[in-house]
Amino acid sequence: MMNLKQKKVLILAVRAGELMMKNGAEIYRVEDTITRICKACGIPYVEVFATPTGIFVSVDGTDKEGDMHTYIKRIKGGSDTDLSKISRINQFSRKFTTTDLSIEDGMEILKEIDKAPPHPLPVRLLGAALVASFFSLLFGGNVIDFFCAFIIGAGCYLLSGLLKKIDVNFFIRGVCCCAVAAFFALTISQTLYTANYNAIIIGSLMIFVPGVAITNAIRDFLSGDMLSGVARVTEASLIAISLAAGAGIVLKLASYISGGIF
Amino acid sequence: MISSFIFAVMATLGFCIIFQVPLKHIPAAAIVGGVGWVINLLCIDHGISSVVACFFAACAVGLFSDICSRFFKDAATIFIIPGILPLVPGSGMYNTMIALVQNDLTRAASVGSQTIFLAGAIALALLVVGGFIRIAVMAKRKIIRPRRHGD
């Protein structure tokens, strides 16, 4: 029979790990957090194997008659990077291991962190608009491009959010968002001759660039988690391909229709 | 140069909002992104190839992120992810795609390989900085702890 306390600890630890993984933490941080939480609750033997698509944890108690228990948590759905959650879980695990916080209280705090809403939509749209508009300036845009990219960037981010809500997979999402961005950028550059559609499209594309996947892949490789590193490199390349494909399809179609753009 | 620093800081600020960087860390993270971009530009101005420039810039981002993470006592990822994003070769990706659309395979191959090298440079820089920081931390522990015990 599994010790009830041990089971609760296991659920708490895996929950914390799952939350971190979903919000864009590196593998070693997830494994470290799970091990620390279990050790803090007096479980002497903990073995964790985490990958971006699932977490496996084995624990063994002190009593010789007790069984060894394994919990497998499949992580589904794409990651939705929220760095403030990682920061909060980090602080939580530090607090949990140093003070004698009860397991139930710990679970409550975790639930609270999980439920914490992201920034309100207008603020996030503003963020996306800032990214798109300032990158269009960095890549040689003028003032008109700045304002176009501001609006198109916000629009694309909104579209991406909507598509995510109806569970469209990340590849199609990337294609759609960049296609829409390219379409509007081309339309604007056709009506306003001073606008430079390249700068606008690059700006909008930067919002979706797979920076998190690349960064985490490297940190995984560095700490020896080759499997996760490879998985994340693949994810990053797929996202990059989807973005290029989306913009490419529209530009190609435009060149067929008008003939004269390129 | 100052204007592009401001642009890069603002763009990184946008990423901070999208990725929900905790409010108190946003200024530091945005400045890390701006510094990375400016170092990239400075290196290119001094005739260093764009791949090597990207390497140095990513090194700077990695280093500053680690300093920030130690200063604010929080995960380094929070600073690295937004900071590294201005360096990610989005324009290279786009130009490769344009060359492909125009059926210019030679240019697509050259721009495409350049893009992959840029991404590789970022990766290598983070690996190198991460490795050195680990060595430094280990060395510090090995050197300082015995002294403390000695006292």
List keywords for this structure.
heterodimer, A: 262 residues, mainly alpha, three-stranded antiparallel sheet, 10 helices, 69% helix, B: 151 residues, 0% strand
Helical coverage of chain B, percent range: over 70%
| Strand residues, percent of chain A | 5-15%
Distance linking N and C termini of chain B = 51 Å
The ordered string of helix (H) and strand (E) elements of chain B is: HHHHHH
Find the structural class of chain A using helix and strand composition.
mainly alpha
The main β sheet of chain A shows up as:
3 strands, antiparallel
In short:
The complex is a heterodimer of chains A (262) and B (151). With 262 residues, chain A is mainly alpha-helical. In chain A, 69% of the residues lie in helices and 8% in strands.
Describe this structure in words.
With 262 residues, chain A is mainly alpha-helical. Chain A has ten helices and three strands. Chain A has helices spanning 4-22, 27-40, 83-98, 103-115, 121-138, 143-165, 170-191, 197-206, 211-222, 226-258, and strands at residues 45-51, 54-60, 68-74. In chain A, strands 1-2-3 form a three-stranded antiparallel β-sheet, with helices on one face. In chain A, helix 6 packs antiparallel against helix 7, helix 7 (170-191) runs parallel beside helix 10 and helix 9 packs antiparallel against helix 10. The longest helix of chain A is centred in the C-terminal third of the chain and has 33 residues, at 226-258. Chain A is elongated and about 80 Å long. Chain B is mostly helical. Chain B contains six helices and no strands. Chain B is globular, with a radius of gyration of 18 Å. The mean pLDDT of chain B is 87. At the A-B interface, helix 3, helix 5, helix 8, helix 9 and helix 10 of A face helix 1, helix 4, helix 5 and helix 6 of B.
